[in-house]
Design a protein that fits this description.
14 helices, mainly alpha
Length: 393
């Protein structure tokens, strides 16, 4: 259980109580300005305002949120000053929090730096706007397994020690994968980018297989975890389809939360890392290819359209999914030892998903009506050669 931040100070709480009652629970148009004026005029209240902010952050953790989730929703709903203030409060609360796993720690390391600037009234307004948002956050599905065996687990589904099988082997296999994806993002040749991505997927599949075989022989088999990956506007539906395709190709399952702008991906840790890496890289490559295709369309006298981009990304996601699955299946072959191991892990992932999301619905992809956009998206994803290749030296 998270602590509620630093202890109360002996400062006068009257100003804070009045300001919070006015700004956070009063819907009048002037409420925010009135409350901000109260806080701005009383510097002695600053410590208590900060303490309550850390308490709101701890409350978000209890409702299933994580640092990256909070940063994402603040960026979507508010502005940069609010984002910097949220990061500041997360850091304050981290000092009073229980131990977390490596994924949580990485999210803390990625927080925006620098304090929120502005005069006292502006900063007080930022504080109250942020706290309004924090108070209204809905509950999220917890990413840790309640009541699981094997000791205390962090909120990222890993143990609190910060070590995992995936982390131990990252130095070689994942470093090679990262290097391939970096080359794919940097090249100006679409065919080379997609071939490099396909090779990265093949290496991810091989790495996942090795990890699965090792885990199956361990005295205490690993259990699937979960993470959230942002799916940002615009064209978030097509991006969610791409993420779902990447997840499926890497033995994971994804559930999209359209309202909050993320997908929850369920799978084993090595596979979750692969999904994060590949989805991010493919997004970069897809947008680069889309820009190039639009330029060609403009030369032909056609203006840029939203439907072209939506159709392009939807086609790219659909075709890329087919190619990724083929690349992932290639290393499996007819290995009789491996097939039951993968089947067992698939059952475990499905079980975890159904516990987290007992009810899900399907969403129909909207806005896919541009034939040229669809054709160009298919071409961009279809240039990849996804057959078996010689291993990298």
């Amino acid at each position: 259980m998270s602590n509620a931040g630093p202890p109360r100070t002996p400062d006068d709480l009257g100003t804070v109580d009045r300001a919070f009652r006015t700004a956070l629970y009063d819907s009048a148009d002037t409420a925010l300005d009135t409350a901000a004026s109260l806080l701005a005029a009383d510097p002695a209240a600053d410590a208590e305002v900060r303490r309550r902010g850390a308490e709101f952050v701890a409350g978000a953790w209890r409702r299933g949120w994580q640092p990256a989730d909070l940063v994402r929703v603040v960026r979507r709903e508010l502005g940069d000053p609010h984002l910097r203030l949220a990061a500041e409060l997360i850091r304050v609360q981290a000092a009073y929090d229980r131990p977390r796993g490596p994924r949580w720690t990485a999210q803390l390391d990625g927080l925006p730096a620098g304090p929120a600037a502005g005069d006292r009234f502006s900063r007080a307004t930022t504080v109250l706007e942020l706290y309004r948002l924090l108070l209204r956050l809905p509950d999220l599905e917890p990413l840790d397994e309640p009541g699981g065996s094997g000791g205390s687990r962090g909120s990222d589904g890993s143990d609190g020690s910060g070590a995992s099988g995936g982390a131990r082997s990252e130095s070689r296999a994942l470093a090679r994968i990262r290097a391939l994806l970096a080359k794919a993002e940097a090249t100006g040749y679409p065919e080379e980018a997609e071939a490099l991505s396909a090779k990265a997927q093949e290496l991810m599949a091989r790495h996942s297989i090795d990890e699965a075989l090792l885990a199956s022989r361990a005295p205490a088999p690993d259990a699937p975890g979960a993470c959230r990956i942002g799916v940002e506007a615009p064209y978030e539906q097509a991006k969610a389809v791409l993420l779902d395709a990447v997840a499926a190709a890497n033995h994971c399952r994804a559930v999209w939360n359209e309202a909050l702008g993320f997908s929850t991906v369920v799978g084993f840790e090595t596979d979750l890392t692969a999904v994060e890496l590949l989805y991010t890289s493919l997004l970069v490559q897809a947008e680069t290819a889309m820009t190039r295709a639009e330029a060609a369309q403009r030369k032909g006298g056609r203006k840029r359209t939203k439907t072209f981009r939506q159709s392009f990304l939807a086609a790219y996601a659909h075709r890329a999914g087919t190619r990724l699955r083929a690349a992932a299946e290639a290393p499996v072959g007819e290995d009789r030892e491996l097939l039951p191991v993968l089947a067992s892990r698939e059952v475990a992932v499905t079980g975890r998903l159904e516990r987290m999301f007992p009810e899900t619905t399907t969403t129909r992809l909207r806005g896919v009506s541009d034939e040229a956009g669809w054709t160009e998206g298919v071409r961009a994803a279809d240039r990849a050669r996804v057959g078996r290749r010689r291993p990298l030296p």
